[in-house]
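Quick note —
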Amino acid sequence: MKSTIAIAAILVAGGVGYAMWPAPPQTTTTDTAINTENGVLANVLLPETLSQNAQIGQLAFEAKCAACHGLNAAGQDGVAPPLVHVIYEPSHHGDEAFQRAAAMGVRGHHWPFGDMPPVEGITRGDVTMIIAYIRELQRANGIN
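Predicted structure written out below.
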């Protein structure tokens, strides 16, 4: 009888300890990359409208970045990460991080895609417009 009570006490204590353990964070498509159809890594909600700078940035992004980072910065499986992702929120990767990545390339550090080479034929002004586009996409997807 005493051993039954002792076992029950251990099980209850273990259950209480488990209940007090922090639950894993809940994720959505805006805070984790997911594999979706056609090799796209993130589901990107598009804003209803884009500012004039973001429209210019979208054109530059499509010309210089989309081949790797995918349409609407959704990433491509095995190629490059989505930029509409919590990792690239302004408080973690500020605008200058995008400028430096485009100008000098960047060592792979968050993703298993390898290093990003510098982007040929792109100016700081181009990247400024691309950043405006990416930031507007991010805000439309709850990334501030």
